[in-house]
Amino acid sequence: MSTTTSPRRRLLVLAAAATLALAFPIATSATSPATTAAAAAPAAPAVNAAGPAAVAPLPEIPATWPSTHLEVGLTDSPGGAAALHSSGAYKFRYQYLAGGVNTGAGWSTWNAGAKFADYYVDESVAQGITPVFIYYQLLQSNPAGGAENTADLNNLKNTSTMHSYWADVRLLLQHLGAYSQTIVVDIEPDLWGYIQQASSGDDGATVPAAVASSGDADVAGLPNNADGFARAYIKLRDKYAPNVLLGYELSMWGTLTDPITQNTPLANIDALAARSAAFQQSLGAAFDLVFTDPADRDAAFDQIINGDGGVSWWDDTDYARFDRYVSGFVNGVGLRMVLWQIPLGNTKMRAMNNTWGHYQDNHVQRWFDDATATHLAATVNSGVIAMLFGGGADGTTSATDARQDGVTNPSPINGNSLVSYNADDDGGYFRHQVNAYYAAGAMSLPGSTFATSATVGSATIFQTQSQSITSTALSAETTTVLIDVQLFGPTGSLVTHWAHDNVALTAGNAQSFTDHWSAGSSPSAGTYTVKIAIEPAGGGSQLDFNSSAARFTVRIGGTYVAASPTRILDTRTGLGLTNRFVSHTPRSFHVAGTASVPSNAIAVTGNLTVTGQTSAGYVTLGPTVPATPDFSTINFPRGDDRANGVTVALAGDGTLAAVFVGSTGSSTIQLVFDVSGYFLPDFGNASYFALPPYRVLDTRNGTGATGKLTANSPRSFTVAAAGVPSAAVAVTGNLTVTGQSKAGFVALGPVLLSPAAFSTLNFPARDDRANNVTVQLGANRTVGAIYVAPAGATTHLIFDVTGYYLDGPGGAAYFPISPVRTVDTRSGLGLAKALTSGAIKPFSMAAFVPTGTVAVSGNVTVAGQSTGGFVAIAPSLTWPTSTSTINFPVRDDRANGIVVPVDGSLGLSAVFGGASSKATTHLIFDLTGYFAPVP
């Protein structure tokens, strides 16, 4: 049983991880050999669909919860879903995700490609079982050390640890978000109790946590405290996995009083529950459920192994304390409760002789060996909607033959006279009682006196548009109430609310209200949640709360204004920023409000160039960047000037941030950035039209222009052949140089003069290189080009068009996002294996962009290539392909920006053209935005 400081959650997850990583799935027997049952069988609860006795109003059950009855679940190892299903009508199975986020032993390493969670979900869904994950990563992360509470709280405020932590949470949600089924995740058992103990006045905002300071772009802007930590989970869930129900973990000992082990008088329980509820409410995050574990070890285990003197045994008063605490908390936070990690021991079966794996407890028989069902009804009426059983340590009792000791019937102790039903370590008692419970008819869950719902006028709206919200309330009783319709934004903060007071509800008759909200010109992009609270007329304690009545998405898009390339950053001259970038030191520079870029721009196109780097490394560019980012923009060795074209979101203050990650902490670099256009948050400028990649220039064969470019002599070519209309103002595409006789750079623009004041692509001699461009067109759909190099130098140029911008509506607007990694063949993200030369590999953007998307922007990186070659990316490809995206030699990590159409299923394909049929390369793709039709 929990103590007032640490509940001793000792798990064997790390020991199991090595096995899981080697051979998934691992079949675990959920059934045991049949044996002769005892003559006097325990009683089954006398319940049926009529449900328990009348109960006070309770919060509403989440709309996507999979049952209207009290369901039973069990801890279940990977590979065990089919056996579990065959042994009983279980609705849930649960599994820890643990090992630490930066240890190399976390859940994402247990199977190739971070597929552990996918496999667990797949087999659960196949058996009609809802999977539940216990996300328990913080304590086991580095650096940790010391007591559990100290380790948890120190990790929570460690910026490096938390940067890895948010990446791990995002990875999990990206995997779970690929499913349509409901999946449940319980967040960090024990941590919330430690936070409450460390807080001032039960206020989570007083406990530090690295949220925005972690540098993770998805949680930028959230406060660096436990409130921000909680809200970050909601924000990430809403973005990546709206099918996931998130559970908050109630630690009753978080008040520094354990009501069970300290035998708190019943009269004092309400005050403790109110404190726990006040702490949870201080977090300001819209969780879906609450979890709590009544006791994570069998009572006899704690008595014998931990020497607690028997205080872990519960009596009638302890159960009354527990039910009252749950009821007070559930109604205080407006969320229903799931009990989990409930011990499986019993005092009935002879198998339970208080040896390793066979320890006694009384929870199972309290709730499922009561002919009147009074005990179970009392707990359900407190707000419990599911009970998940399983021990929290090795040696606790199991409902399988975990000890592999077969059927055991030692001499009775403490009156446990029943002969084993089967070889399960508990003598088969749990399965026998649960099957009897379901055979008698699972208990209906008591509902709320009220039922509320909401509908919205549109699932998606854009800046400046209005949303209609129609809320409906139904009461089982005639009453007069206040109905408060609340709108919460993507960060979990209240945006606005509409209070409808003195509403007369007649029993059984619904009342509806329609409210309107205008997004305005600069709303926060993301998921908005409608919540409905019912209070007594005039206000007061909540009578009912629907934490997720409706959701809708606000998207902020922009249309394009092309511009002649203009340099706004050059650290060599002090333009934009002075001094060199030092490794792992993020810096920001102004973009909006400089040169020709208006102050309300939301994104820009441009060209990033690195020069003078003292070590190999990479640079990341984005609206915000951490000291060690998990996405990149440009990769390079030492002393090699390189450029990359970008289409990238600006931060809210109109800045871009960059960070150099070098091979040593003292490494430095110079950065140059040229702007070629910008997006404004309206739909009155140029919209985008995607095209299949089409080669309009190849001086090697005379396409578009004949003969190599000569140094310092401007040339021009037309893009008309790609289907670009005469009124187009700019095009997107890919520029490649090959056969260059001298090092130098190429500049593209509507009109080029010599010398050029900006650059598009930098390169040494004899090294094929490519760069993504968005370039304004000159007269008659022309693009100017100049090769800047020593006199007499020559080079071939290749240009593939991927789309164009045309003034006015009809095309697509651009929706910038914080960069997110969508493909990484090194880890199996998006694509399971490295690309093999000539093999076309499809991958999907469906988990990251909305239906209707016509094109995406991003950054392509190749790494670990076994030969030189090129990669082409397009909505569909044939081999051999006629276009390319990025060119590279062997053993040279390279990156290139991309703007490319997607197919109707939001898919792309990639192919590697290597120097041999067995050549391979890894591929990485970071998404920076998408193009969708202008509304």
What is the rounded distance between the termini?
Answer: 58 Å
Give the strand line-up of the largest sheet. 1-2-3-4-5-6-7-8
Q: Please tell me what the overall shape is.
A: elongated
Helix/sheet category: alpha+beta
Uncertain ranges: 1-40, 47-54
User: Helical residue percent?
Assistant: 10-25%
Mean pLDDT: 89
Number of helices: 13
- Rg from alpha-carbon coordinates: 31 Å
Strands, count:
43
Biggest beta sheet attributes: 8 strands, parallel, barrel
Which band does the percent of strand residues land in? 25-35%
Q: What can you see in these coordinates?
A:
- With about 950 residues, this protein is of the alpha+beta class.
- It contains 13 helices and 43 strands.
- The strands form nine sheets. An eight-stranded parallel β-barrel has the order 1-2-3-4-5-6-7-8, surrounded by four helices.
- Helix 2 links the parallel strand 1 and strand 2.
- The two termini are about 60 Å apart.
- Mean pLDDT is about 90; it is low at about 1-40 and about 45-55.
TL;DR of this structure?
The chain has 935 residues and is of the alpha+beta class. The chain is elongated and about 100 Å long.
What does the secondary structure layout of this molecule look like, with pairings?
Elements: H1 13-22, E1 71-75, H2 81-87, E2 92-97, H3 116-126, E3 130-135, H4 148-156, H5 159-176, E4 183-187, H6 191-198, H7 226-240, E5 244-249, H8 266-282, E6 289-292, H9 299-304, H10 316-333, E7 337-342, H11 363-368, H12 374-381, E8 384-389, H13 429-440, E9 450-456, E10 460-462, E11 466-475, E12 479-488, E13 494-505, E14 511-518, E15 526-536, E16 544-555, E17 559-570, E18 581-582, E19 587-590, E20 603-611, E21 617-622, E22 634-636, E23 642-649, E24 655-662, E25 668-680, E26 686-698, E27 709-710, E28 715-718, E29 730-738, E30 744-749, E31 761-763, E32 769-776, E33 782-788, E34 794-807, E35 812-824, E36 835-836, E37 841-844, E38 855-863, E39 869-874, E40 886-888, E41 894-901, E42 907-914, E43 920-933
Parallel strand pairs: 1-2, 1-8, 2-3, 3-4, 4-5, 5-6, 6-7, 7-8, 10-16
Antiparallel strand pairs: 9-11, 11-14, 12-13, 12-15, 15-16, 17-25, 18-25, 19-24, 20-23, 20-25, 21-22, 21-24, 26-34, 27-34, 28-33, 29-32, 29-34, 30-31, 30-33, 35-43, 36-43, 37-42, 38-41, 38-43, 39-40, 39-42
